[in-house]
Amino acid sequence: MRAEAGILGHGGIRAVAQAAQVSETTVRKGVDELEAGAEPLRRVRRPGGGRKRAAEVDPELRPVLLALVEPDMRGDPMSPLRWTTKSTRRLDDELTRQGHRVSADTVADLLREEGFSLQANVKPLEGAQHPDQDAQFHCINDRAKEHVGADDPVISVDTKKKELVGPYENGGREWEPKGVPTQVKTRDFLDRQEPGKAIPYGIYDVAANTGWVSVGTDHDTAAFAVASIRRWWQARGSHDYPRAARLLITADAGGSNGYRTRAWKTELATLAAETGLEITFCHMPPSTSKWNKIEHRLFSHISMRWRGRPLTSQDVIVNSIKATTAHTGLRVHAELDPGTYDTDIKVTDTDIDALPMHRHRFHGDWNYTLHPQHGDTADAAEAPRSAGGLPLQSRARGLRNPELTGVTETALDELVDQLSQKLDELRERGCSQQRGGDRIRARGAGAKDKLTTADRVLATVLYLRKLGTRDLITQLLGVNGSTITRAVHQIQPLLAAHGCTVRPSTARFRTPVDVTAFLTNSNPTEIKSAC
Predict the structure, then answer these.
(1) Is the distance from CB of 218 to CB of 159 less than 8 angstroms?
(2) Which of 129-143, 375-389, 395-409, 441-455 has the least mean pLDDT?
(3) Are 109 and 92 spatial neighbours (Cβ–Cβ below 8 Å)?
(4) In a 10 Å sphere around its CB, with 0-12 CB exposed, 13-18 middle and 19+ buried, how is residue 230 labelled?
(5) What count of Cα atoms within 13 Å lies in the side-chain half-sphere of residue 92?
(6) For 175-204, what is each residue's pLDDT tens digit?
């Protein structure tokens, strides 16, 4: 416009302004810039022209916004938005309430400039790891290699997620005609008129790369789990391994095959007696179930097989599992188990003690073997016992075994000698405070302690070694729980002041019979003192 105004001469500015419908002042400025030789701006406004940014007009806006989105780091932990969704509109409303007028779009721009973005949660936190987690994995790996090398079966077992049977939504997407998706129910409430739930229990043969799945319809119990293993052995295992005398099973630490489930051990003992197999079971450490081979070698492929497809009947579930394959050559067999399995079956201590079960030296709670016939465990159970649960001839000496205490007997005696004087002083001080005056009886008169100083130190060491529960230690020493508790409260601070660290043992015992069997098979070695 400024060029045309210059060409027209006198009156050209007004003519151009009227034609362009702009003010004469704007055209006149253009003419002046052209005569001065200024370069074209190629933009509407000059640099710096127009409305200033909100953060420049209001210098406090950015710090206040950051205090709202990061109250724990930059602002008040009791921020108004501490417990609400921090959407841009909520942030906009709160900033406006505090006197900072701003739009939701401006809030989003400021957050991006500060390095924020919309993010979902991630799951890298696995919780506290068990200190023996890696050692247990190595133990499982070594046993699996040894069994596979001897042509003995190694299987991984677990229960897959229970599935609703009927027109219910199933995660994932599948190719369908455009605009004609499969219709399912709006809510996943179980309909009693329909088949109910399906409980897939899987057995994965590690060496053969084959799977077996029993689809139960009743309850996920230990009896159902062992019945599934029994079906696999009768139909496949005994044919694939005709000369096998042993079976190694790995599983996670919970559920129907958990290491705390008593019924699981009794059912496995029955299976061992029926098949004549020596069944060794190794549990994964707690919170490591995702490392169980069946999870990523079998169950993941089953989930992909029926993704986006409602499991409308039990036949659909069984056939979908049968059709599961993988590029590694995986083959899967599945069948329906319509049996009923009772819950709340009680298994007593006597029932557990009678099992032909040998707990391994390393974490006997996770690793144990069930024999087809009674062996050393039964022999140990028949030995004469005291009220403490150990054979009479070994009770006084056996609990001082270095494999139980973690220190040599000589080191344990030295520790008792070092703590004796301090214990006597604490006992005398406590008695004086309790009676509120000088001693009336001579030293040594009155009721005797149930545990000697040496026994109290021994009880505390066994307790801190986490060999078993407090009740187990009371049975071993023939006293009540309060006596053990008082001993631990007295000795533990003295051990800490003495600089003695009692390291937890990898062995775990449930009953005195387990301790007896362990001591019977142990070979005491020289162990370096932990103190």
Answers:
(1) no
(2) 375-389
(3) no
(4) middle
(5) 12
(6) 888 888 889 888 888 777 777 899 999 999
- CA–CA dist 66, 55 (Å, integer): 12
**Counting runs of H as helices and runs of E as strands, what totals does the chain give?**
23, 9
pLDDT at 347 > cutoff 50: yes
CB 6 within 8 A of CB 31: yes
CA dihedral 237, 241, 246, 250 (to 10 degrees): -50
C-beta separation of 391 from 527 below 8 A = no
pLDDT reported for residue 30? 75
- Which residue, 206, 214, 250, is CA-closest to 234? 214
- Angle (nearest 5°) at CA 469 between 467 and 475: 95
Give the pLDDT confidence of 483-511 residue by residue, as tens digits: 889 889 988 988 888 888 888 888 888 88
Q: Please state the φ and ψ torsions of residue 216, each to the nearest 5 degrees.
A: -85, 160
Map tokens 């993704």 to a residue: 307
Cα–Cα separations (whole angstroms), residue 220 to 145, 159, 352, 366: 30, 8, 21, 21
Mean pLDDT of the chain: 83
Q: Please report the DSSP string for 29-67 in residue order.
A: HHHHHHHTTPPP--SSS-TT-SPPPHHHH-TTHHHHHHH
Q: H or E element: which one contains 301?
A: helix 300-305
Question: Nearest to residue 202, comparing CAs of 296, 80, 85?
Answer: 296
Interatomic CA distance for residues 70 and 58, integer angstroms: 20
